[in-house]
Amino acid sequence: MFPRAARRLPTAAALLVLAGSLTGGAWAAGPRDTAEPHRPARITRVPSAAGSGTPLTGFALQSTAKVADSAAVVSSPGYPARGWYPAGPRSTVLAALLANGVYPDPFRSTNLQQIPRADFGVPWWYRSDFTVEDTARRTALDFSGVVSAADVYVNGRQVAAAADVTGAYTHHELDITSLVRPGTNTVAFRVRPNDPDKDLTVGWLDWIQPPPDRNMGLVRDVVVRRGGPVALRDAHVVTRLAVPSLTSADLTVRARARNDTGTAVTAEVRGSIGGTAFGRTVSLAAHETKTVTFSPADTPGLHLTDPDVWWPAGMGDQPLYGLDLTATVEGTVSDTAHETFGIRDVQAPLNADGARQYRVNGRPLLVKGAGWSPDAFLRWDPAYTEDRLRYALDLGLNTLRLEGHLEPDEFFEQADRLGLLVLPGWECCGKWEGEVNGSEKGERWSEADYPVAKASMAAEAARLRGHPSVLSFLIGSDFAPDATIEKNYLDALRDADWPTPVVPSASDRPSPALGASGMKMTGPYDWVPPGYWYDKREGGAAGFNSETSAGPSIPTLDSLRRMMTPAELDTLWKDPAARQYHRSPSTVFGTLRIYDDALAGRYGAPTSLTDYVRKAQLAQYENVRAQFEAYGRNAADPDRPATGVVHWMFNSGWTSLHWQLTDRYLDQNGSYFGAKKANEPLHIQYSYDNRSVVVVNNRSAPARDLTARATLFNPDGTQVYDKTVTGVGVNGEGAHGTPLTLPSSVPGLARTYLLRLVLTDADGTEVSRNVYWLSTRADTLDWNGTTWYYTPTTGYADLKGLASMAQVPVSATAATRSSDGTSTTTVTLRHSGPGTTPALLTDVHLVDAQGKPVLPVRWSDNEVSLWPGESVTLTATYRTAGLHGSAPGVRVSGWNTPERTVPAA
Prior knowledge:
- There is one protein chain.
- The chain is of the alpha+beta class.
- Strands 1, 3, 4, 6, 9, 10 and 12 form a 7-stranded mixed β-sheet that branches. It has a 5-stranded parallel β-sheet with strand order 28-27-26-32-31, with helices on one face. Strands 2-14-7-11 form a 4-stranded antiparallel β-sheet, with no helix packed on it.
C-alpha cells in the first residue's frame, strides 16, 4: 500500500498428495495455539544413494548467551547440548520455545507482548547430527530460509560465514565431502538476529503484532545431498503452448551438469517426460559446468500434440507432468533430478486504460484474490495450509497474493493441484525497498545488499518457475526498484527462464525497463461504505487493485472469547477509541474508531458484546460482498474495466480483528460468507450506484432462459414492490446482463428496507438468491478528504430500522453421514413463525457436544435469509475427527432469530 504509515530454496520434501476434499493432519480440529512439544531431535540417517536429498529431521537450539563453549566444540559430534531445546526441521527460535511450553498461548490477550525481546538480541545455535556409512560419495549441505544470517559449521570446522549466508531467500550449497566421516556427523548454524529494516528477510509491519524474535531461525529444510562426480542442478522444463488453439506445446528441457572433481569426466545425461525419452553424452573438464538442453529440434517427442493443459480452478483441469533426469558416469548413477511442471500460458498486457489484464491460455481472467499470511511464527503445517487454500476456492477466489513471506515448496505444490493461482513478490516497508522508498521504513542499501537481492531473485525464480499456479512475480510492492536493482532482478529471472509476466510494483509506480505497473494501490484499508466500491476512482472497481478492503473484520463470538479476556471484550464494544492489541501495531490502525463510528451511525449504538458482534457480521457481509460484486460487474465494461482485485487480506497469521476473510481458528464470519455470495459462478446482484439488478455469469458457457425477480420489503415484511423479468440470457466468461433497474422511489417504502433478488433457471430451480438491507438515505463520502487508507464518510445510511424487526423462529432438522474420515451434515432450515417478518442473515454453526465450533468446515451456503414459509437445505463437510468423538449439533442464530442448538447425529 502506498504510502504506509508504518507498515524460501529447494527442499527435499516428498510430493504432497492431496486426497479427498478434507485431509487429516495435525490441526484437524483447528490450528493449535501452540504446537506439541518436539521430541529430542533424532539423528538423521543419510543414505548413500546417488541423487538422494535428506532433510535434517530436527535441531537442538540454545541462545549463545547461555553457551560458553567454542563454535568448534559445539559443532563437533558428541557434544552433549544439555538443557538445549528440541526444535523441528523448520523452526524459528520462538516457534521452538512455544512448542516446548516456555511461554503461554501467544494468540490470547497480550501474552505475546510479555515475551522478553532481549532474549532474541543475540545469536542462537541450531545443532543437528546425521549419520553416513559411505564416505566415497560426495556430500553437500543444501539450504535456504535462514533468517537473517548464519555462520555454518560441520564437525568442528567453519564452512561458511554469516557474511555469505545472509538473506531469507538466498540458496546455498556447501560441499562438505572432505569433512564427512563414517558414523555421526554434526552440522551447526549460529543464526544472527533478524531486523527487516536492515536485512533482506521477512517482516510484518502493520499486519500483526510482530513476534519478539522477528522470526529469526531456520524456516526451510536443511538437506544433506549425496552424489557422484557429476551433479545435476537447475533441472527444469520451458513450455511453449500454442495459444489460442491449445493444440500443441513445445517442451525444452534444461539442466546444468557440474563436474565436482579435479579431473575430466564423461557423463551420460538421460531423461524422460511421460513416454518420451532422450539422452546425450556430455564431456566435462575438471570443475566445469555445462548447460544440457533437449528441445523438439533434437527430440521430436518434446513436441506435444493435444497436450494436457493446466487451468485455474473453475476454468478446467489441473494436469501435471513429471521430468526425470539421471547422470551416469562409467555406468554408475552419479545424480538424479525430478521436477513437476504444468503446461499453461500466462500473458498480462496493459489494456487501453493502462490496467494490467491477465490472460490464461488465451482466456481473460478477472483476478479475484486476497492477501495470504503465513503463520506468525512461520510454522509449516500442510493440513492447515490446505484447509485455508480450500477455503479460498470455496469463496470463489482464484488468486492469492504473497507479499514476501514466500511459503515452502509444498504450498505451491498444493496450489498447483487445487488450481489456485499465486501472485508472489517482494515485500514493502523494510530493507527490500529501503533504497527507493524515500522516508518510509527500511535502511538504504549498501554494496553488499545488491548481490544478496539478486541471489534471492535467482533462487526464488528457480524454485517457482515450474509451478503452473504462479501467475506473475512482483519485483516491487509499494515502490518499484531503481534501474540497478531492476536490472539485477530481470537478469536473474531471464537466466532462470522465468515464464510468466514480471510486474514492477503493486502500486502505480513504474520501473525504468518494465515501465508502467498496470496496478493501483489506492486503498482503502479502513472502513468505507458498500457504495464506495462502485465509483471508478480511488479504490473503486476499475483497473487492478493489488490490495484493498474496508479494514476490520470482527470474528465470531466463539473466536473472540478464545482470543481475548472478558475485560478486553468489554472494552471492544464499549470504547471505539481504545487501542486494540489484536488489530495492529500501527498508529493508523491501532483502534477501531472509524469502523465503530460507522457501525453505530448506520445500525445504532451496540448495547452489548453480542449486539456488537451481530451488527459487525451484517456490516462485514454487505461490505465484502459489495467489493467483489462491483469488480465482477465492471469487469466487462468497455470503459475503464475492472481487471483484478486483491482483498486485503485473506487470512491472518494470528488472532486478529482486521484484514481477514477467515480467522486464525478457521471460523467463518460475515466477511467470509459475503465473499462466498458475491463470487457465485452464476450470480444475481444489486448495484449501489445506479440501482440496477445485474446477472454475472462466471461460468464458461452462456446461461439462457433465466428469470430474475426483485422484491422490496419493509422491515416488518410488508411487500412494497415486486418485478419479474423472464427470458434473461447472459454470455459466459464473466459477462453480465441487466434485466431490470429498481425505481428511484417506491410508495410506502420505509427508510430502512430489504431487497430480495432471486434468479431461477428454465426449470424454475433457484440458482442464485441475494438479500440486501438498504436505506433511502445513502452513505455520503467526502472524496476530497481521501487519505492513503480511506475516504471519510460524512453521512451514514440509516439501517437502524432493522432493530425493529420482530424476533422470528427458524426451525432446523439435521442428519449426518460419515465415510472415510469425512462427515457431511445436512441441515434444513424453515421459517416457522407467523406474520410477515423475514429471518435475516440466519447463521448455522456446526458444534460438538460442548458447543464448540467444529472447524474447518465447508458450507454449501450460510448466513441465509428466509421469508415466512420458506425453507432451505444446507450441507456442511468436515473431518469426523473434529467432533472429538461426540455427536454433532447445529447451532442456529440470526439477526432476529433466537439462538438454539439441535442434534445432528
